[in-house]
Automatic annotation (TrEMBL):
Gene3D superfamilies tied to this protein: FAD/NAD(P)-binding domain
Domain FAD-binding: 12-344
Family annotation (Pfam families): FAD_binding_3
UniProt protein name: Salicylate 1-monooxygenase
Organism of provenance: Coccidioides immitis RMSCC 3703
Membrane-spanning residues: 12-30
InterPro entries xref list: FAD-bd (IPR002938), FAD/NAD-bd_sf (IPR036188), FAD_monoxygenase (IPR051104)
Amino acid sequence: MSDTATREGPLDIAIVGSGIVGVVLAVGLIRQKIKVKVYEQAQGFREIGAAWHLPPTQGNRLEQADQSRLQAGDEQIQINDYLRWIDGHITRKDDPSIRKMLFKIDAGYKGFEGCRRDRFLEELVKILPADVIQCRKRLDTLEEKEGGGKIRLIFCDGTTAEADAVIGCDGIKSRVREIILGEGNPASYAHYTHKIAYRGLIPMAKAIEVLGEYKARNQHIHVGPNAHLIHYPVANQTMINATAFVSDPEEWPDDKRTVAPAIRKDVEDAFEGWSPCVRGLVSQLPEKLDKWAVFDLWDYPAPFYNRGKICLAGDAAHASSPHHGAGACMGIEDVLCLCTLMGEARVLIQKAPTIRDQALISVFDTFNSVRRTRSQWLVNSSRRVCDLYHQPEWADPAKWVKAETCFEEIKDRSHKIWHFDYNVMLQEATQGYKQSLEALIGAVSGL
């Protein structure tokens, strides 16, 4: 088939990466009647068994991107109504078991809806046609033809594929980002935040023994100098997911391997001198566990998310540290924007196949313009929030008042995530897209 004939066929999009953002994007594009293939380098799906939470109003955004979200996840959804911060360090001499509630923020109706990432993804994948996702396809490079036309994807196993456009949803270690920004460019790679995460699942009965019924069954963040610990219920309140974040002044030895073996004593040493309930919870972690180096794209942010008909979305574009708990959900906002713009492009291309390339380039130009500022703000804000959690003032009662003033700032930052008007974003994106093509559309008869 000639290239001209191919370009008059259905719009064909390649997605690199089958994490939550990649799969939700695939579902959303298919619902826009766009042909999609997802290429995943692993043998199975990308997400590990950690929990994730939808911040307030984010559930609506996910439903907007994919109306089948309810059938794909609601059996796993659990709700937390507040964000709560507790002093995890200073102990009252008269009663060490008493912990001061420092601040809480009402998350509103439905609050934070949480589930395990892998289970959510497994259910979501069931919505897709069986041939959409191809595993064991590690991307080597992309070839763009002079004068436009299909992009060629070349995989490390020697096989190839073609698509009208490519969207990289391949996460923090994105190969697509490296292709767009250039090998050797520091913005092509994630960098160490000097924070280590220790994570484990603890049976609810054990958690209740050390935290009490209320704290165990509700989300809490225990803050203190150079560390914090967050926990919340999962698995229908039968377990809690506990994650301890610890500051690390050293460099991480190998940026290719961000997970290393650890033992519980490493965590116990980091929380030495903290409150009995924090130390008690740490004592329930497994004797052997992993430590996760927290990397992000803060040091060298991507100056742009697109090049021609190649684009980045989700962590591939703006991987943040996890301290807002909104990284994946920022990716869902990306999906909503991309699906809306791709729907506009499909209609235009059906009417005038000759503008296919420019219509797709304008989709990604508009996406970059609309999404980059907000998503890069999240990368910065997540760093800032962790700094506030770990501030040294928590160790000094004389500076406690100063330390506590941080929560109004945290509240404002949280509300900027939660109360984002995605309808305004979509209106801005749609108008910007149409304006970018006005001259071209005017030159095409019949539009």
